[in-house]
Amino acid sequence: MREFFSELSPAPTPECADNAVLVVSELVTNALRHAGGLTALSLAADRSTLEISVRDPSQAPPRERPPDLDGGGGGFGWVLVRFLSRSVTVKPSGQGGKNVRAVLSR
């Protein structure tokens, strides 16, 4: 993600970069932990937005669950992704599974 940012002009703000890195981390982690793996990651940008797309082999949509406040059980990822993103869509992938797309303000 940071290498992708280094090629953008103008560069995203530090806050935007941190948010995007966190969204990528959460989406990839969710694909690995809950959806059978990561089959694709794509990044795109225009002057006003950053787009992060993660494809995984599961057709099941992401589901929110109560955060574990007592010890490392997770539950924060999907909430964070939705909070930090301008929009989040989940659609079936033409290659099977699903594509989760998050758009962040730049």
The CATH class designation is Alpha Beta
* Strand arrangement across the biggest beta sheet: 1-2-4-3
Beginning-to-end CA distance, first to last residue: 14 Å
- Helical residues, percent: 25-40%
Mean pLDDT: 90
Strand content: 25-35%
Count the helices. How many?
Answer: 3
Query: Considering the protein shown, what is the CATH homologous superfamily?
Result: Histidine kinase-like ATPase, C-terminal domain
Task: Write a concise synopsis of the structure shown.
The chain has 106 residues and is of the alpha+beta class. The chain has helices at residues 2-6, 14-34, 77-84; strands at residues 40-45, 49-56, 87-92, 98-105.
Give a verbal description of the structure.
The chain has one domain: Histidine kinase-like ATPase, C-terminal domain (Heat Shock Protein 90, 2-Layer Sandwich). A hairpin with a 3-residue loop joins β1 (40-45) and β2. With 106 residues, the chain is α+β, with helices and mostly antiparallel strands. It has helices at residues 2-6, 14-34, 77-84; strands at residues 40-45, 49-56, 87-92, 98-105. It is globular and about 35 Å long. α2 runs antiparallel to α3. The longest helix is centred in the N-terminal third of the chain and has 21 residues, at 14-34. The mean pLDDT is 90. Strands 1-2-4-3 form a four-stranded antiparallel β-sheet, with helices on one face.
